[in-house]
Amino acid sequence: MIRIVTAARLARLEADADAAVESARQTCGAAAEAFGRHVREVYAATDRAQRAEATTSEVGVILAQAMRELSAAQQELLLKDIEIRRLREEQGRGPVEGETLTVLLHHGEPHTIYASRADAHADTATHGAPPDQVWTPCGERPAAAFTWRCEAFIYNAASNGFRRLHMPAPKTLGEAA
Questions:
Q1: Can you tell me the distance from the alpha carbon of 99 to that of 93, in angstroms, rounded to the nearest whole number?
Q2: CA distances from 131 to 99, 110, 120, 144 (A)
Q3: Is the distance from CB of 124 to CB of 133 less than 8 angstroms?
Q4: Strand 148-156's sheet: what is its strand order?
Q5: b or e along 77-107 (b: 16 or more beta carbons within 10 Å of the residue's beta carbon)?
Q6: What are phi and psi of 162, to 5 degrees?
């Protein structure tokens, strides 16, 4: 089959081809523009996701630290609660016959009362006394003669009070006239 192509038909085919090329160029431009928007949206979404991930990680670290601090605080509260209960029981029972207290004297004046002599000695070390100080009996010298002195007191149920563990020897008074 032979087909005869006229100049008008050739011009129409050329115009259709040019229109198709222009349409393809516009479609390609629109596709490139849409692809560019899509890529920008993907980058933006990726950036938001990375920031959210970093924030989540930071919040996780902060939360873990807060949980550790909370656990430590709860442990401390539990220990304090146990100590408070022990002290309440001790306070409720009252003094027991033969129980001793140690009074720490500073230049003869009462400074602090302790449950044990070891606690009193440890406290003198915090006030400047040498920690390896040898504590010897004071004998008959007055309490004011010593910078630090520990006196033991024992509970006496008959008098409902504490008395010195070592009573000084009574001094004789001058003769009566």
A1: 12
A2: 26, 20, 11, 21
A3: yes
A4: 109-114, 100-106, 148-156, 161-164
A5: eeeeeeeeeeeeeeeeeeeeeeeebbbbbbe
A6: -100, 145
DSSP character string of the chain: ------HHHHHHHHHHHHHHHHHHHHHHHHHHHHHHHHHHHHHHHHHHHHHHHHHHHHHHHHHHHHHHHHHHHHHHHHHHHHHHHHHHHHHHH---TT-EEEEEEETTEEEEEESSHHHHHHHHHHTTS-TTPPP---TTS-GGG-SEEEEEEEEETTTTEEEESSPPPPPPPPPP-
Which amino acid type is present at position 159?
S
* Residue the block writes with tokens 């070390």: 125
The pair phi, psi for residue 6, each rounded to 5°, is -95, 165
Place of tokens 């609660």: 81
**Cβ–Cβ under 8 Å, residues 94 and 149:** no
d(CA 120, CA 101): 10
Per-residue pLDDT of the chain (177 residues; tens, 9 = 90+): 777 778 888 899 899 999 999 999 999 999 999 999 999 999 999 999 999 999 999 999 999 999 999 999 999 999 999 999 988 887 777 666 767 788 888 888 888 888 887 888 787 778 777 767 776 666 677 777 777 778 888 887 777 777 666 655 556 666 555
Bridge-based pairing state of the strands 161-164 and 109-114: unpaired
